Amino acid sequence: MNKRLLKWLTIIVPVGFFLLVLSLTEVVFFEELSFFELLLILVFVSVGSAFFSAWVFGYIDRGETEIKKYAEHLEALNKASIALTTELDLSIVLQKVVDLSRTLVNARYGALGVLNESGKGFEEFISSGISEGLRKRIGLPPHGEGLFRVFLEEGRAMRVQEIGRHNLAEGFPDHHPSMRSLLGVPIIIKGKIIGDLYLADKQLLDSDPDSEEIISFTEEDQQVLELFANQAAIAIENARLLQQLQQLAVLEERERFGMDLHDGVIQSIYAVGLTLGDMQRRVEEGPEFMKKKIDEVSLALNQVTSDIRNYILDLKPHHFQDKNVVEGVQELAKALRANTFIHVDVEVMDFNPKKLSTDKTLGVLHIAKEALTNIQKHARASEVKISMGIKKDGFELIVADNGISFDNQSLKNPAGNGLHNMLNRASALGGNCIIGPGEEGGTSVFLQIPLN
After folding, report:
1. In this predicted model, which residue has the larger pLDDT, 149 or 416?
2. Which of 78, 150, 225, 398 is the most exposed place for a label (fewest CB within 10 A)?
3. Measuring CA to CA, which residue among 314, 319, 313, 322 is closest to residue 265?
4. What domains does the chain contain, in order, with CATH numbers?
5. Percent with pLDDT over 90 in the chain
6. Mean pLDDT computed over 31-46
7. Quick one: CA dihedral 346, 348, 296, 374, positive or negative?
């Protein structure tokens, strides 16, 4: 049943009821009313019914208009909230918050003041509705004084009907457009105010943009903006967390790159330096010997270049590519024998090296290489024993020498990056690395990591 029919029924039904009562009165009480009296009463009832109908349906129409308007606001709010979730870059999110808030309450100007650490001023001030050229002519953004100070100290939503009449308004700087009405809403994250949204100059859909009439923001505008501020807070927090994660990833990648350079490229360059030093001492052995050594140095430098390229492209070092942990350790032992007079013994328990993932294999080989490099540079050892295998607690690697051991102070506060890198790599693999004096003197490196 539509409203038009209902309106007529509110008139027809009372009149019909009145006529029915009159008929019963004449039948039961045998009282007759004159035609004029009947007509007068009928007109009175009809007019009363009409006024009553107009009042009831006017109230219903107003309610429907408000519901429709509120539904439109909610739809706009929902669209604005969805639009915020499409961006993750913090600067873009902040600008979108201001732009969308203007649209929600139909404001000519908007701004978002992001608070600094003290919460007493603005770290950033993002505006909307003002051209870039005008923004530059205005100069420095506000710092949170004057009327802004009221919003910051109150920490709640506020409406100002006319900015110029507020006792704390300090006026506008040169080139700044004049603004009349103002609505401010705080943006709160985890109970802490991180900024304020400011909307100025409310506009009606059919109003003249150049009109001097002051249109105040309504309580409904405030409610919608407060709801949007909650959504904006979530979007800003997500963007900030993503930014922090990206910064952390950069730092971790920088640390990993430094470790890989130290454990891979720098050690390879050090080996080239040892070869050149050996050539200098044995230069008298003739051109054939020197030619062979030059070829070795050239090959080693080419490998260093390849390693640097692989690191930049986030690939594995060339000398560890396509090798399992047994093959890699045996190759490192072979290189140590070739470059020194140290006897190196490798003991491998019966196990399947494929049980170690590629990442864990690479980490183990870096730790083993650093351990053997330290022996070559510092230990003055004549013998090295390497053993590895899988036990119930996971994969184990032991590198022990009979040379000079580290003192306790050096182990607690290592001066170089090598020992730090070994410990950090072991921790990253989910295991631990113990470096200390060996049972028969020298130094022992014990590495244990889980298989899964």
Report:
1. 149
2. 78
3. 319
4. 3-82 (no CATH), 91-247 (3.30.450.40), 324-452 (3.30.565.10)
5. 10
6. 63
7. negative
